[in-house]
Amino acid sequence: MLRSILFTIILFICSPVYHYISAQEEDLPLVIEPLYPDSQIPETIGYFDMTVEPGDREEIGVRITNENNREVKVNIQSANAYTYPTGGIVYDLEIDTENTSLLEDAIRLADYIEVEEAITIPALSSVDIPINITVPDIEGETILGGIRISTFSEEGEQTEAEEGTANFVINTETIHAIAVQLNLPKSLESEFSLGQAGFISNSAQVFIEMFNKAHKIQDNILGEYRVTNNKGEEIFEGEFGPFNMAPNTKIRYPFNWNNETLDDGDYVLDMEVTIDDETIKASENFTIHNEDVEEYAERTEPIVPEARTNKIPTWMWGGGIILFGIIMFTMGRRK
């Protein structure tokens, strides 16, 4: 009986546990074409770029062709325009993070776009989808938003997994965004500015706040930066841009910590930004705290895997010796 217990313990501890789960993604071949209105600027291809007046009503559309042998469900959503933290423009209904956001007086074009939200497209066919836009009644130069067209694959291959493990099906959403740019007759001056500097501990990046406060796209932003410590010693320096910012948006533009060491302390970020042939200079203080350094170290510290071995652990040998002694003692008493 004791011999059987010992064997069962060893077998349970030494037997491997296998997890084998896989999933297969199926392509959804769709062709999406903008249907331009009369107000479209002829030279622009691939997105809506219209010359409009405040209060106008515009009807645009998209033609979606399903080249698959089965019907496809398509979701359509109006979107606002945001500036990506490292520059450039992205389209989504709502983004509100420390790294990118709309300013309070921003025009949310998604509220002025009317579109059917869900469409089923039969196999091997095309559907024209009308989209209505009311131009906001504001004094501005550019209003920017977009249309997001998404397909959601519910197909997945689920395989058997060992008892006690989880089964998964991977669903994939594919999103195609088309910009909607409304060009108003008024021309505005740039309202670009810099804000506070700071440090992002989980990625070891210095950032500077950037604001585009005008109802216009601010393009061709570029410049130089330099980080020094409290002794005036240069830690690192570099260049950035050019990139664009969406109207009435704010970002925290990041710079990687380009130095071999990361120490807590007080630092200065010096900036020189060129906008429309105008140079903007700023010098902002920021502090790296000891907990910032510790957090980054914990995130980047390599995990050393334990070496695999086929040897029986020492404690198991000890357990076996004890059990063997018990067996021998019992057999001796029977004699």
Can you give me a brief rundown of this structure?
By secondary structure, the protein is mainly beta. The chain is built from three helices and 18 strands.
Report what the structure shows.
The protein is mainly β and 335 residues long. The protein folds into three domains: 2-14 and 306-334; 30-155 and 169-183, Immunoglobulin-like (Sandwich), CATH 2.60.40.10; 192-300, Immunoglobulin-like, CATH 2.60.40. The protein has helices at 2-14, 290-300, 314-334; strands at residues 30-35, 48-51, 57-66, 72-83, 89-92, 100-102, 113-115, 118-121, 125-134, 142-153, 172-183, 192-200, 205-212, 218-229, 234-245, 249-256, 265-275, 278-288. Helix 1 (2-14) packs antiparallel against helix 3. The two termini are 18 Å apart. 21% of the residues are buried.
Please, what is the CATH homologous superfamily of the largest domain?
A: Immunoglobulins
Task: Report low-confidence residues grouped into runs of 5 or more.
Answer: 1-26, 156-161, 303-309
Q: How many strand segments?
A: 18
Mean pLDDT across every amino acid position: 84
H/E series: HEEEEEEEEEEEEEEEEEEHH
Number of domains: 3
Assembly annotation: single chain
Which CATH-level-2 architecture of the largest domain? Sandwich
**CATH topology group of the largest domain:** Immunoglobulin-like
| Inertia-based shape | flat
Helical content (DSSP H or I, runs of 4+) = 10-25%
- Note the beta-strand portion: over 45%
Main sheet characteristics: 6 strands, mixed
Structural class of the helix and strand makeup?
Answer: mainly beta
List the helices and strands and how they pair.
Elements: H1 2-14, E1 30-35, E2 48-51, E3 57-66, E4 72-83, E5 89-92, E6 100-102, E7 113-115, E8 118-121, E9 125-134, E10 142-153, E11 172-183, E12 192-200, E13 205-212, E14 218-229, E15 234-245, E16 249-256, E17 265-275, E18 278-288, H2 290-300, H3 314-334
Parallel strand pairs: 2-11
Antiparallel strand pairs: 1-3, 3-9, 4-5, 4-8, 4-10, 6-16, 7-9, 10-11, 12-13, 13-16, 14-15, 14-17, 17-18
Helix pairs in contact: 1-3
